Amino acid sequence: MTTKHITIYALMIALTVALSLTVLIPVPATNGFVTLCEAGIYTTASLFGPLGGLTVGAASGLLIDLISGYPQWAIFSFLIHGLQGLISGYFAKKSTTSWLIGLVLGTFVMVIGYLFAGWFLYGWPSGIASIPGNMIQNIVGIGLAIPLTSAIQRLQLNKKISK
Predict the structure, then answer these.
(1) For residues 87 and 142, what is the distance between their CA atoms, to the nearest angstrom?
(2) Residues 118, 126: contact at Cβ < 8 Å?
(3) How far apart are CA 18 and CA 68, in angstroms?
(4) What is the pTM of this model?
(5) Domains of the chain: residue spans and CATH
(6) For 91-135, how does the pLDDT look when each residue is reduced to its tens digit (9 = 90+)?
(7) Are 149 and 47 in contact (CB under 8 A)?
(8) Membrane spanning segments where (predicted)?
(9) CB-hemisphere CA count at 13 Å for 86?
(10) Per-residue exposure over 5-27, b if at least 16 CB sit within 10 Å of its own CB, e if not
(11) Hey, which of 11, 92, 110, 129 would disulfide with 29, CB 3.0 to 4.6 Å?
């Protein structure tokens, strides 16, 4: 990993955290919240592959929880969003179909991960209650990440950065 990559990942983490804290919708049934962090994670994973997705997913998930006052979720978010970014980034560079499969698998990892995390922290009803909000969060995140990724690729910014 080069200094340029570290700088880009730090910028993407900061942008993802800022976007997520701008749109923070509390969900009392799960003692958690819904954000737009998937947009940043999926965009980074799509442009920079598994390492970028892992780095931005793990760090932004952790920081969002700590800053927004939900520290009990921080370690789970670190692991879940990191794995989500890693998986979606792994599939991103292969083909359009593979990229979409990666986004769906990333969604699956996130929804199931928070199902078990909620179950562990607050009991199974909380885990089950997290599913609809997490599905919506991922659908919106994918809906934002696809055109954003496409625009950045058309401008070839990711190629200029990767050099």
Answers:
(1) 14
(2) yes
(3) 11
(4) 0.91
(5) 3-162 (1.10.1760.20)
(6) 998 788 899 999 999 999 999 999 999 999 999 999 999 999 999
(7) yes
(8) 6-27, 39-64, 70-92, 99-122, 134-152
(9) 11
(10) eeebbeebbebbbebbeeebeeb
(11) 129
